[in-house]
Amino acid sequence: MDTLQPETITQAILNGVDYLHQHQFPNGEFCLYLGHEDHLKDTIPYSNVFSTSLICFSLLNLSHLPKVKDILELSATFLQFQSMRAGTWNNFTTWAPLFKVCPADVDNTACASKVLQALKRDYPHNKEILRCNRNKSGLFYTWYTLRPNTIWNKDYWLLILREFKNPIQSFFFWSKFECNRNDIDAAVNANVLFYLGLNESTQPVINYMLDIIEQNKEANCDLWYRNPFTIYYFFSRNYKNGISALEPAKQPMIDRILATVQENGSMGNNVLNTALGIITLINLNYSANVLKKAVNYLLDNQQSYGSWARWAVYYGGPKKLSCFGSEELTTGFCLEALASYALLSNENI
Prior knowledge:
CATH class: Mainly Alpha
Radius of gyration: 19 Å
Strand content: under 5%
Order of helices and strands: HEEHHHHHHHHHHHHEEH
Strand order of the largest sheet: 2-1-4-3
CATH architecture: Alpha/alpha barrel
Distance between the termini: 19 Å
Helix content: 40-55%
Number of helices: 14
Largest sheet: 4 strands, antiparallel
CATH topology: Glycosyltransferase
Shape: globular
Low-confidence stretches: none
Number of strands: 4
Structural class: mainly alpha
InterPro entries: Terpenoid_cyclase/PrenylTrfase (IPR008930)
C-alpha cells in the first residue's frame, strides 16, 4: 500500500495534540456541546463525563507523547473523581444539574473503566455490578434503575434506590427524555463487551451484535448512537480485541463503509465519519489505497488551530432533538485514525 509522507501525518498529529492540550479544562474534562442539528452551529456547553472517556481512549496509542501523557494523567484523575457507588459512572458530571436525577449507566461505566484500566489507575471493582444489570436474555440494560428483579446485591440496590432522593424530578426525567427503564442498546452492549471481554456473562452480546449486522439494523439499534459509523466503530473494537466470534460481521461492515467512499476520499461525507471509517477498517484488518485517500481527506480538513470540525457523535434519542459533539471529540477520533494508519504503515510518531 502506498503511504503518505510520514512527517505530514506526524505534524498533523502533533498539531491535533497541541489543540487538545490547550483546550482541556483544568480539572481534566473536555468540552462537549449540546445542539439541535448535526453540524452543531448553535450550541451550549454541556458538562459531561462521556466525551472525556472517548477522547482519552482515542489517545492511548499516542501516550508516549509528553503532552498526551499530561492529558491522560489529568483526565484520569477527573474520571476517578466522577466515580459513583461500586465503580459506576453517570453521563453527567457531579456538578451538572441533572446529575442528581439521571441514573448511572453501563455505557459510561464501561468506557471510563476501560480508560482507567489501560492507564493502570485505581477504581472500584465493578464487574459484578455490571453483571447485575442484565435482562433475562443476558443483554445489559443501559440504566441502573428500578425494575422488577431478584438480584441480591447491596451496592446494586443502593445504586438503583438513589432516585428516591428526588422522586418528583426522577418522574419528570423519565417522562421528558427519550429513554425508559428497560432500554437495551447495541453500542452500549458492545462497549460493555469491550471492557469485560468475552466470557459467560457477555456471550449473549455476540449474537445480538451479529444479528444487527446481518439484518442491516445498525442505523436503528441504539437510542443514542444513530449513525452507523459509530456502531461500526464500537463493534470493530471488539473484533480488534480478539473476539473472533464476530468474524461474520466483518465483511458486511467493511462493504458498507466502502460503499460510502466519495471521490475526495471522504467516507459518509464528513470528517467524523471518515475518521470512524478509517479506524473501523483498520480494526477489521482491512488495508487498501482507500485508506490513504481517506487520511489525505482528514489532513486536508484539519483546521488552522489543529482541530477538526465539530459534528454530532451521539443524540438524545431517535428524534435527534438533542445532538452532542465538539471539536475536541472529533479531533480525538481523527487523531486515533491517523495514529492507527501510522501504525499500519510502520511509521514512527
